Automatic annotation (TrEMBL):
Name the UniProt record assigns to this protein: Cytochrome P450 2F2-like
Cofactor field: heme
Source organism of the structure: Albula goreensis
High-level lineage: Eukaryota, Metazoa, Chordata, Craniata, Vertebrata
Source superkingdom: Eukaryota
Location (main, coarse): membrane
GO molecular function, one term: oxidoreductase activity, acting on paired donors, with incorporation or reduction of molecular oxygen, reduced flavin or flavoprotein as one donor, and incorporation of one atom of oxygen
Length: 502
């Protein structure tokens, strides 16, 4: 009797799953889902990009995919991406519930906040305050150049050696955003700062990695002591520390004279000073952590990718250095405006962003109403995954889609051009709001360091592995960075660099 009831229950669950995963009429096609797991077993969870591209080749640029019983639509290629995120941007501007990232932020702040009044107000506030604190102006340049001096000091002390650059560039990127948010930078050796930087790097891997996908797909496992619990605990630890900084600011701030974004936010709370305000301290904590995370991982991982390719493509590095020397001449420091006279260096930086593919699946979207895409019907509440990687490597859009080659951003006259398919930070109203800061950081850091140092692949470094480590923000695999002051010998014992390794 018990066996019959159990069999009946299993049959009922399977029938319920089959009904739940039945594709609506004119819904994008896709692979047949399995019970419980949906299509999750059809992906390499360590890095699903290749599998998603293969599915796109089979089912089309717009296809469906089930995470457990939850339907999702994967968008590949430039034209479908533009239709969804630009032409019909409002329809696709929502953020999904029930994901690890949503639970971490509680849907507050700006990145994972759903489309609505709070998101609009916080995004407008973020753009305004970043601008007021000098984004695109000399004051922001000074902050970035000041941080570069700390990086240069470390590289000088390691002249002739080979170092692990991961922590170095994470430290620098994090400190730049900390100055903007908190009004001060941390010493690189500060124990909490190091724990915070490490946590951000690890959580990036977890959130879109295997354990993040399991969390999103199998809710019954969420209470178990699995690695995603570490992501939640670490996030809350940094959040508590941030709230402590806010409390200190309350005691020392002068209303109307903000020193940083915390003071700006506290001024905004007082200015609105009404029940039901969209600005409060709980929102502020998520907002600050959004900017902290977004301003650290993307920039540091792009820098690490840049130096990986510069070391293994010495002809590119040397051409950049020649252009930098000619343009800067006797100038003591680079300026962001100098980029207009450095077409090849600009092309190299953009090409590094393209191959870094730092946000391969962007941040997941959600439809806020019934809509259509490329002739398919997409119901309200459907999970939308923009495969930015497919656009950054789309063969019809790039001269060298699968190689590192700055010529992707140069015309026949050697002038810098930016193809429409260059969307490393997504497109539309929900594109990354830190893109302007990231562009300034990448240019000033790379130009300043290339002017002073030469970077080379270690003799004992083996064959370079360009395969990235997948996550919310994708990162290169660990490697060692050979560094020397320009014109002097390094630990490989030669003045020149190794031949390019393919």
């Amino acid at each position: 009797m018990l066996g019959s009831l159990l069999l009946l229950w299993i049959s009922f669950c399977l029938l319920f799953f089959l009904i739940k995963t039945r594709r609506p009429k004119n819904f994008p096609p896709g692979p047949r889902p399995f019970p419980i797991f949906g299509n999750l077993l059809q992906l390499n969870l360590e890095n699903p990009i290749s599998d998603l591209n293969k599915l796109s080749e089979r089912y089309g640029k717009v296809f469906s995919f089930f995470f457990g019983g939850r339907p999702a639509v994967i968008i590949s290629g430039l034209q479908p991406m533009k239709e969804a995120l630009v032409t019909k941007s409002v329809d696709f501007a929502g953020r999904p519930n029930g994901l690890l990232l949503t639970h971490l932020t509680q849907g507050k702040g700006v990145i994972m906040a759903d489309y609505g009044a709070s998101w609009r107000e916080h995004r407008r506030f973020a753009l305004m305050t970043m601008k007021n604190f000098g984004l695109g102006k000399q004051s922001m340049e000074e902050r970035i150049l000041g941080e570069i001096s700390h990086v240069s000091s470390i590289l000088e002390r390691n002249h002739g050696k080979c170092i692990d650059p991961q922590t170095l560039f994470h430290n620098a990127a994090c400190d730049i955003i900390c100055v903007i948010l908190f009004g001060h930078r941390y010493d690189y050796e500060d124990s909490f700062f190091q724990a915070m930087v490490t946590m951000m790097a690890e959580n990036s891997k977890i959130a879109n990695g295997p354990w993040g996908m399991i969390y999103d797909t199998l809710p019954l496992l969420r209470s178990l002591p699995l690695p995603f619990q570490k992501a939640i605990n670490d996030y809350n630890t940094v959040k508590l520390h941030t709230l402590g900084i806010v409390e200190q600011h309350k005691k020392t701030r002068v209303p109307g004279e903000p020193r940083d974004i915390i003071d700006c936010y506290l001024d905004e709370i007082e200015k609105r000073n009404q029940n039901g305000s969209l600005f409060d301290e709980d929102q502020m904590a998520s907002f600050l952590l959004d900017l902290l995370f977004a301003g650290t991982d993307t920039t540091s991982n792009t820098l690490r990718t840049s130096f990986l390719y510069l070391m293994t493509h010495p002809e590119v590095q040397e051409r950049c250095q020649k252009e930098i020397d000619e343009v800067l001449g006797e100038k003591l420091e680079a300026s962001f405006e100098d980029r207009h006279r450095m077409p090849y260096t600009q092309a190299m930086i953009h090409e590094a962003q393209r191959v870094a593919n730092t946000l391969p699946l962007s941040v997941f979207h959600c439809t806020i109403k019934d809509t259509e895409l490329m002739g398919y019907k997409i119901p309200k509440g459907t999970l939308i995954i923009p495969n930015l990687s497919s656009v950054l490597n789309e063969e019809s859009q790039w001269k060298f889609p699968h190689d590192f080659n700055p010529s992707n951003f140069l015309n026949d006259e050697g002038e810098f051009v930016k193809p429409e398919a260059f969307i490393p930070f997504s497109v539309g109203p929900r594109m990354c709001l830190g893109e302007g800061l990231a562009r300034m950081e990448l240019f000033l850091i790379l130009v300043t360091l290339l002017r002073r140092f030469h970077f080379f692949w270690p003799e004992d470094g083996g064959v370079p592995d360009y395969t990235p480590v997948f996550g919310v923000t994708q990162a290169p695999k660990p490697y060692r960075l050979g560094v020397r002051l320009r014109g002097r010998q390094g630990c490989d014992g030669t003045v020149g660099t190794k031949q390019r390794v393919n």
